[in-house]
User: Fold J domain-containing protein from Paenimyroides ummariense.
Amino acid sequence: MINHYVVLEIPNFSDQTVIKKAYRKLSKKYHPDVNKDPFANSYFLKINEAYDFLIDENKRLLLHQFLYFHEVSKATNNNHQTQYQDKYTQNPQQNSVQVEPVIHFFSADKKQFVLNDHILLQWNVSHCKSVNINVFGAVSFSGTHYLKIDHFAEEIFVLMTVVGLNDKEYKYQIKLQYSNKNPAKKAFQKIKSQYPDADEIHFKKETFFGLHARINKNEFKNRMILLGSLFFILTTLFFTIAANTLVFLILLLLFWIIFSQCYKRMHDTTKYKNKVGLLLIPFYNLLIVSELFVLDSESDVNEFGMVPQKSTNSFKNWIVNGLKLLNQQLTLLHKISMGSFLLLVVLVLFKSINTYQETPVNLTSYYIETARPTTNGSVNRDYFLVFNDKISVNVSENYFNEIVYRQKFDTYKIALNNNNVEYIRLIDSKNNNTERLNFGVLQSNNPLLLITFLLFLSQLYVWRNLKAAAELKFANGYMVFVTIVYLYGIFVALF
Assistant:
């Protein structure tokens, strides 16, 4: 019977993974279109024949039986021959012959492994009655087999127990040791054996905007000082300026970042690592946050990541080092794009707090423009107010109803900038109430600010995640696109 394992140049009893890998390698090497050797075509046919045979489980089982009985019969003949020779070499003073097993070889192709590795074990033993390998069970006297490492272990001992012709057991051992150059991967695989639900993302590099990994108390303190200061400033602006829609969106993003820092810090402590749900309890979460400023990091790796590197930077040094690192990470295109967004935000905030010369006007007329009904029957209406018979402005339906029908306001002042209406101050003198009706980029129903804010969030994602060579073209193209939108927003804000 043909040993097809030999044709594919792999050990006997190899599994399907090894068979397929060997077939792909040899078929490429000896394909007639590639290999011009006159014997390549015939060998290519043999390779295909061997693969078709071994990939069939029933046929492979027949070959295994043949190889097994062949090895057993060969080993048995060797044992008989040895016993015959020993009759003439035994010590005449002994009543029985004591023959120890002969280990021709017992080896592994590698002594270090990683998870999901395949290690080739080979053995050949004679002068014995049986052979047992702890990871395989009872085996033939000679053979090869792949050991798949499907679970984490610091060390694996492959123990071969041989029963000699004198019925004594002889043990031989191979020590395999885990080795991984990436300590984070090793730590995760070790934790995974203790906590099956552990997520590998916690063992990747911690990012400012992410929810994975752990941060130490000093890093947490510096981040919270920065974020808390921004939160206080933006909250104040929200109640004092007209562009509260943009400020509210930025506050939501800031609140999420603050939550993510607390989330990662809780995972770093022994006391709260499994109690992050407490962050959702109002007022009690403030007590927890105050404790996070003083609690030490858990001293060992846990299911939420590696022990964070200790830092003693003051807030000033932390800011300086952070800016230097950010400057290194940002390309010129990133700096132009993100700088455009920051300029747009500054312009919007400036327009919202800036005041212009206000001129008293009278509401002289109003009208409603109705568009043609759509296919679903809805009708789009635009509402207009006319002041001093020449200044027409488009307002929302709510303001139109309050001004025209409810007559909530009795005095109006218009602020003009280059003949453009910046805002109208609505005054209710009876109740001493004043409102500011904005136009242009600050208009409440203008989607520009919302669109630019969402684009900025997506830009952050693209910057942090699309770094592979194949993704850079798309990432750079997206940066150019959002930059054009930001520049359009700046143009609208200025003119």
